[in-house]
Amino acid sequence: MRRVYAAGVGMTKIDRHYDKGFQELVHIAVKNLVDDVKMFSPEAIVVGNMMSSSLYQQDSLAALVADAAGLRGRGGFKVEAACGSGGHAVAAGYALIASGLYDQVLVVGVEKMSDYPTATTTSALAQAADFEHEAIYGVSFAALNALVMRLYMHRYEARREDLALWPVRMHEYGSQNPYAQLRNRITVEDVLKSAVIADPIRLMDSSPIGDGAAAVLLVSEDVARKVSDTPIQIVGVGMGSDGLDLTSREDLLNPMSVRIAAEKAYKMAGVEPMHIDVAEIHDAFTITALLSIEGLGFAKLGESWRFIKDGRFASGDKPSINLSGGLKARGHPVGATGVYQVAEIVMQLRGDFPGVKVGKAEYGLAMNTGGVATLTSVIILKR
Amino acid sequence: MRRVYAAGVGMTKIDRHYDKGFQELVHIAVKNLVDDVKMFSPEAIVVGNMMSSSLYQQDSLAALVADAAGLRGRGGFKVEAACGSGGHAVAAGYALIASGLYDQVLVVGVEKMSDYPTATTTSALAQAADFEHEAIYGVSFAALNALVMRLYMHRYEARREDLALWPVRMHEYGSQNPYAQLRNRITVEDVLKSAVIADPIRLMDSSPIGDGAAAVLLVSEDVARKVSDTPIQIVGVGMGSDGLDLTSREDLLNPMSVRIAAEKAYKMAGVEPMHIDVAEIHDAFTITALLSIEGLGFAKLGESWRFIKDGRFASGDKPSINLSGGLKARGHPVGATGVYQVAEIVMQLRGDFPGVKVGKAEYGLAMNTGGVATLTSVIILKR
């Protein structure tokens, strides 16, 4: 297997960029990436995106990104795995290099979400769910997650205020990340008093709607040192799925997509959860953070909320989780998020992340999921 | 580089399947694939699809396909490159195996197009074009191709009746392909008398609107013989892009996406155009066939229409092109088409294609494109 490295990264600050289209957002991210590398000559492009088709009537997205990045002629495709599109795009980019097809692949995640009324964006987000059996009845994506959260609180006897600690921590980290969409600090009381979105999920349990683009340049071992003095190796890649229709799942609180993706990535990397120093995980809602932490093996089923209450997974712990502020505060431009995560882990392992730093770290993990943990990717990186 | 084989194929007859959803179409194709192999245990899924998001409000398509194929748990993603999604999905599947990540990957192309009024589907097809600079003004995808066709006729002094020979031939082949949507024979007069879609493109220059699914099981060399007695090797994979906005192109009649994808695939396979025995190329409109044949190097620029007039590329010639009936007659369920093409080439090289056969053949080629030759993939297979 050819070794694959993440040799450069670039991000756009996540925001409601009403004045920027796909091309402008991609251009900023790629420009920052170009400043991060010694050489920039990608031979192919993979784009992580969910909503260009439903919200912006734009397919052929790889060609749009090629032009925005000054790479006309280079081939490629868009990867869709709903809110997990970005992580899966990195997995596809990894494969394009490890296969020997290319030596340099540009992976770009980009999403525009904020131009429309929230109801329109909410409908588009519900496309992550099963349309024929769920979304067609008007259930929102938040409502599906609310069912899971209520079951979690019931089964594991977690109180609503316990589950408010996660977003408080995420906003604390987000406040120090210059690329984060939400940089205000919040309290448990703020969470509990915020508007109900879909009971028991409140506004401050929910990731914000925003626009953004992130870029990662993946390269083969042959060119890694020509492109960067500090290439970070991708040592594990895993993907998994669970039933699209929630009623058909084995266990709503133990999604098999996360278990399968994590098992594959750990095995390939030759590590276990205890070896991970720093992780970026999917926390579109507070409940998502708990399922992600448990699915990745950082806590047993039903344990993660207690660990969080005890201060675990915070800066300084192993693993430190979501020092970026996570989807909750860094933001969640859905199809771009997985690429942001990988970019952040690369910077953490290099020691130049511009927010809360992990300190000395060898292994980092990025976990991104589409739907209610329906399509999950896990990427493990090593310094 | 690990060797990759197409070890099994399955197709759904293309039709207006008003009574079948994505899951039913996928199920039929995969069931046929299962009958074609000795062992079926894919570890990952790649889905080629363009319109599930815009027409059916359904993302997370890889999870839907996993369930339809009885493969819950297996990870994967959807690949979008507009009408070229299927070919790019095969390219991504190739990479997932050649990379060493997996030994068996199921590539499924699926598209539902016929449930809506033609105007709705036409709008969705225009998403292949540049929305901000083209589609927003109401131009249809056929109209963009009509501009190219008119330029071709003008520059190369081709007459309208000369360009009617292609669809006549495609219907002849389609009439013998049990999976084809259009099985009626037509004459040059039929083409010239058919309704104008976007002058000079007429109805019978245009691929029909239909629903379908095709599946290809890609495997590593390690398991190829366990899965099939007649695995067909994928020896070349290329991808290329051209400007999304047609006004920005170097030359409308010489799309760089085709040149770049073909050059890469030929080089990797160690062959030249003259070595290809049988090919399935993209002919969404008659003009598309000409650009594809020339871009692949089977004819020089401006020459292909004369070659077709002389009977070249027909059954018995080298290469024989579109013995399936092509997009014109086999049909063009857009995101599935590239997977149909690869399945057909596999059967041609094995000698069991159930329509017009190429006879003895060593090298086959499948060329699929999204947009007006905006995103092109070229896959070369060897017996």
Automatic annotation (TrEMBL), chains A, B:
Coiled coil location: none
Q: Which UniProt keywords apply?
A: Isoprene biosynthesis
- What name does the UniProt record give this protein? Thiolase domain-containing protein
Q: Which residues form the Thiolase C-terminal domain?
A: 240-383
Q: Which domain of life is it from?
A: Archaea
Q: Which GO terms describe its biological process?
A: isoprenoid biosynthetic process
Domain named Thiolase N-terminal: which ranges?
A: 10-222
Name the InterPro entries on file: Thiolase, Thiolase-like, Thiolase_C_2, Thiolase_N
Organism (species)? Ignisphaera cupida
State the Pfam families in the record.
Answer: Thiolase_C_1, Thiolase_N
